[in-house]
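Next comes this protein.

***
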Amino acid sequence: MHGDSQYYIMFGPDICGYSTKKVHVIFNYKGKNHLIKKEIKCKDDEMTHLYTLILQPDQTYEVKIDNEKVESGSLEEDWDFLPSKTIKDPEAKKPEDWDDRAKIDDPEDSRPEDWDKPENIPDPDAKKPDDWDEEMDGEWEPPMIPNPEYKGEWRPKQIDNPNYKGVWVHPEIDNPEYTPDSSIYKFDSIGVLGLDLWQVKSGTIFDNFLITDDVKTAEEFGTETWGATKEPEKKMKEKQEEEERKQTEEEKSKKDEDDDDDDDEGEDEEEEEGEGEEEDTTEEPSPTEDEEDELSPKDVKDEL
């Protein structure tokens, strides 16, 4: 088997990036693949989930996730297996006198005499600059400003159209190309179950596949497999998350302690450098007159 191999049914979650998170339900009917016309959202987490597709002899279907119905309907309506049962009558045309205007202009309404006001008018507060030279600059014109009395384009009032007949609906007729098929739901020759995968992240596990014509058997099988492991899996995940949380807190605490130790060492080095750079500002006392008289010959010689 390969990616282009023909299949009867493609069913299961499709998760790609941030935008695609849906359940595929694709049927091959008369050599053509048909996608469901509805959007079915899939689960998007790290837990195991149970996906179930049920096809009924009355041409209805049901999709379940974790034994809960998420979508259902008619095979004929939700897929384009068959042509439409009816089509628009090609011979029908809207009558020329068909009036589908719900509102019309009031014929009694007229535009007020003082309605026509210009949108912009010369600024009445503007003054020609003192240095304006008409020979050089041309004739001075005041700048234009919005007219506060401007009312816009006049439109007559709308009233109910007495001749309104409603929206014309194109008549439909039976589609001559439509042929009912009561066996759309039925697949007699399924012989292989395959997985269509394209992944860039490892860790996905698939298990416990079942194809059966007994809904009750499928429900029991799901209860015995997924139903038996979902709670232990949930507890295991909660335990793992708690351990990861504790580890993160311990690493953060250790990092904060290391940062505090580095700050203390930096302060000690600055203090030592400051002590080493201190200068001795103590001055030797000057000798008094008596002390000068008592200087020894050697001292006198040294002074000289």
